[in-house]
Amino acid sequence: MIGSGGHARVLLEVLEEAGHQLNGVVGEYSPASKLPDRYTFVPDHNVLKEFSTEDYLLINGVGSSSDLSLRDRLFREFKDAGFNFLQLQAQTAHISDSATLFEGVQVMHKAVVHSEAVIEDNVIINTGAIVEHHCVVAESAHIAVGAVLCGNVEIGALTHVGANATILQGVRVGSNCIIGAGAVVLHDVPDNSIAVGVPAVVKSRS
Ligand SMILES: CC(C)(COP(=O)(O)OP(=O)(O)OC[C@H]1O[C@@H](n2cnc3c(N)ncnc32)[C@H](O)[C@@H]1OP(=O)(O)O)[C@@H](O)C(=O)NCCC(=O)NCCS
Q1: What spacing in Å lies between the alpha carbon of 163 and ligand 1's midpoint?
Q2: Which residue ranges make up each domain of the chain?
Q3: 6-85 is classed in which CATH architecture?
Q4: pLDDT reported for residue 204
Q5: Sign of dihedral through CA atoms 11, 15, 17, 22?
Q6: How far, in Å, are 12, 26, 139, 168, 188 from residue 6 at the CA level?
Q7: Which residues have a Cβ under 8 Å from the Cβ of 13 and sit 6 or more positions away?
Q8: In the chain, which residues have pLDDT < 50?
Q9: How far apart, in whole angstroms, are the C-alpha atoms of residue 200 and residue 17?
């Protein structure tokens, strides 16, 4: 697993519940993250490149409360080196048979991904989030805990949809955006924007 913070800690439990075996963690051991010290911790992620890409499957344990660039960069770097990433679904998640999930997608406990939704590479659908029918969530986006995407919503790459935010049906949120916690988004949001409040007010991220 790449990363040793809070998201990694939750993933570890979801992994074990799903019957996977974790071989080690790339990241510093930190008592604060409370990852058990029985695992091997390797601070330098370049060490992974000495491992066989066929014998090991990676999991991206880097989470985010707004900036997804590190998570995205690590995914790309190790894909370029020939590694594959585990797609992980918590046991209490509900994923429609007609939904499509790409590589490295993580669907956490009590999250729902409904009919015909498409979830692209390296996306987190976090605890209790709801992705309704025909939504498209682009690569390395994060749908944070309790967020709701009503039907036919599009979320761009590297966009963070904050905890308990609601995106109304048919809205398109661009790439590299931050939707604040609790926001209610009524209208489309352009790339590189930040949107907060109820109803959400949109500003440029720069
Ligand atoms: C939107 C967000 C990224 C802004 O963070 P920030 O840049 O550090 O902003 P600040 O805390 O300095 O606040 C700036 C202003 O925005 C307001 N604001 C911040 N977050 C807000 C939110 N979610 N809703 C409404 N207003 C918000 C603040 O009150 C402040 O207003 P002011 O200038 O009138 O005082 C952050 O507050 C947020 O909501 N992050 C999402 C967290 C999340 O989803 N975590 C889940 C992890 S699983």
Answers
A1: 11
A2: 6-85, 88-195
A3: 3-Layer(aba) Sandwich (3.40)
A4: 98
A5: negative
A6: 10, 14, 21, 29, 31
A7: none
A8: none
A9: 38
- Residue to probe by mutation, ligand 1, list 66, 126, 192, 194, most atoms within 8 Å of CB: 66
Task: Say yes or no: CB of residue 197 within 6 Å of ligand 1.
Answer: yes
Domain 88-195 has CATH 2.160.10.10: yes
- Whether 6-85 shares its CATH topology with 88-195 is answered no
Distance 180 CA to ligand 1 centre (A): 6
pLDDT at 40: 86
Cα 196 to ligand 1 centroid, rounded to whole Å? 7
Cα 160 to middle of ligand 1, angstroms: 12
What are φ and ψ of residue 3, in 5° steps?
Answer: 110, 150
Q: Is 199 in the pocket of ligand 1 (CB under 6 A)?
A: no
- pTM, two decimal places: 0.97
H-run or E-run covering 142: strand 142-143
**Omega cis (within 30) before 36:** no
Tokens of 90: 């918590």
For residue 30, what pLDDT is reported?
A: 80
Kindly state if the Cβ of 82 falls inside 6 Å of ligand 1: no
